[in-house]
Amino acid sequence: MNSGKNNNSAAFDKAYEENEIGVKGIAYFGIGLFILIVITFGLMWLLMGVLEDRAKETKSSDNPMAMSDKERLPAEPRLQAAPGFGVDGPDGRVNLELRAPQSEYWELEKQWKKEWAEGMKDSKTGAVTSMPIEKAKEIVLAQGLKSKTGPEAEKLFTESKLRFSDASAGRVATDRKR
User: Fold this and answer.
1) In the chain, where are the structural domains located?
2) Which helix (H) or strand (E) holds 164?
């Protein structure tokens, strides 16, 4: 019985799991990680040097993807519509060098109001490209256009409600549901 008692008491002495931390493994991992980071930074530094040397050797004009001066401009509408402190207008360039910062907007607003009131003509052909709405109404009424009635008007009305749907891939016009 003694032998059974000794086995049971040994089992009760180790009733919990021992918590052993492998400090040696953690230290090796930390040192290895540090070495890997240093090597990576060194390789990136060398790569950057190679790329800078290559950029100095090649000219920017050799690059087929290089943008022109016009392509480098930001998309419309630009905050500064008057590059170089001036505005190009129908009467020539207006110099805004020593004027208030708002003078650019004031000059452009003056031009826009003039175009709104009088309309705009194409400089090459002289054709009117825009005009005030009231003037356009007068011209249309002066032409003596008559409204359409009867079956022709009904046909135009139904055609105006048709649309090409995505479901037909643009092949068949269907009636609008709205």
Assistant:
1) 82-142, 147-178
2) strand 162-164
